[in-house]
Every structure is written in C-alpha cells, then in structure tokens.
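Case study B.
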Amino acid sequence: MTPPARLRRELRGRTLKKLDRRGKYLVGTTDCGSRLVLHLGMTGQLFSSEAASPRLLSATARASLAPEEQGDFRPDSHTHLRFCFDDGGPEVFMRDVRKFGKVQLLAAGEASARLDELGGDALELDGDRLFGATRGRKTAIKALLLDQRVIAGCGNIYADEALFGAGVRPGRRAARVTRRECVALAEALRRVLARSIETGGTSISDYVAPDGRDGGYQDERKVYARAGAPCYSCATPIKKTVIAQRGTHYCPRCQK
DNA sequence: ACCGCACCCTGAGCGC
DNA sequence: TGCGCTCAGGGTGCGG
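Model:
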C-alpha cells in the first residue's frame, strides 16, 4: 500500500501511457516507467465522476438525496482516490467500503512478487494446463480455481458457476478431477467469464461499471447465491457450503 | 511445499 | 428502535 502523499507527489504531472489488466489487478504505466497497481478487493469501485448509481451511495445518502440529486458523484468517506486529468476528461474515483482494495505505486523497474507470481489468465485457461496444476493437489478443486497463482482472475462467483457448468462438485479433491473434467471446467470458466463480460459484470451488491451502470450477469448465474432455490436443470434445491473460507453453491444432483 | 484458518474492514439484513 | 449476530464478490500471513 502506497501512502497517499507519495501517490500525489509521484503521479502529479505524469502521463498514463497504458493500462493493462493482470488477473484482478489493473496496472497503469506512466511516462517515467513507474507502475500504478490497483486491486478492487471485494467492494472496490472504480468509476467516472459522471457516473450515477445508488450503489455509489451509502444507505443514508440514498435516503437523504432525491433521485434527481443523485447525479454527478460526490466523494464520501469511502472514497479513497481521485484521479484528475488535464485533458478535460472526467475525473476517476476509487471507492471501497471495506477497504480490502489495494493501491501500490511501483518505481520504474521495480518488481512485484504478487504480479510476478500470477498464473495464466482465466480468460485463456487451457484444460490440459489446469489438469497439470491439479496433479498431486489434495486441496478442493474450488480452492485451486481461486488460487491466483494457478489461475489469474477467477473469483468466487465464477468458480461456482464454472463448476456447475462442468458438472463438478466444488469439494472434490483437485487430484481426483479427471483430465476430461478439467477440460470441461476450463471451457466452462472461459464461457462464464466471456458471458459476464458481454453482459457487463455481476452487480449483486457493489459492482458498477466505470460509467455507473449495473452489469447483467447476476440475472444469468445458475448457482451463486441461489441456496435453496431449484436447480434450473433438475429442480433439486441448490446447496450452500463453505470451501476455502468462501461461500460455495452447487447442485447436489448435477455436480458429481 | 502444502494446507487450513484467523484476520483485515464496514454495512446490510435478520431475529429478538 | 435498537441490539447482537451473521454474512459478504479478496488476499495475506501464520502455524502445523
């Protein structure tokens, strides 16, 4: 975590030359070669000053502001960063209620163990590579999917959805998942993520796009946060358990 | 090397 | 109305 004063000092006057995504990290490179690394954690939001959404307001702010007053965003106590640009474009805010997000400025040439240890990107996950990563691993297949050193960019919702798509129980020991199942799992994860990107992401509690709009994937999820509701394939109630300290949802009939 | 767990932090929703 | 409890999309650091 880089202190705000240092961010101010070292970013002022710099030009952002490029912006990359590495798994769940956003990496901006400046004209002097330094890199700004952002991670949104659980409740982090990155958005334009022109964005308007009830998700960008606390409950009390929502209650006290009339809908027509909920226009251009005003920083509140959960707003930790404001980027101002001199090209006339809107400002960019980072807001994060739970403060699990991270902001780190790396000097030119400075390495980051976190970034360097990231596995291959989830969007291009290869089934055979996943199979290789599961060999000799006693941990649950879901825990492995969430390990960013194995797959960069897979989060809890998408792990549950991919496991459902592939018909694999989240608690199975990774080493017991077959090559065929790993191929299906990789394909399911790529498909789930591609579809979530198409629909703009999953807005269940905090997520908003940079323009403030909700995503649509919450309407397409099959198991996540559907405990007790009927499976869309077989009508068996979806079960919920805990794996790797994360809420885990699956169909006890469709997933073996 | 690997594994499971406590912990970081704040707010929403629930039962009483 | 308010209290206390549980839970939440992520990651780190520790002990075994």
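Chain A has a mean pLDDT of 95. The remaining cases will be described in the next quarterly update.
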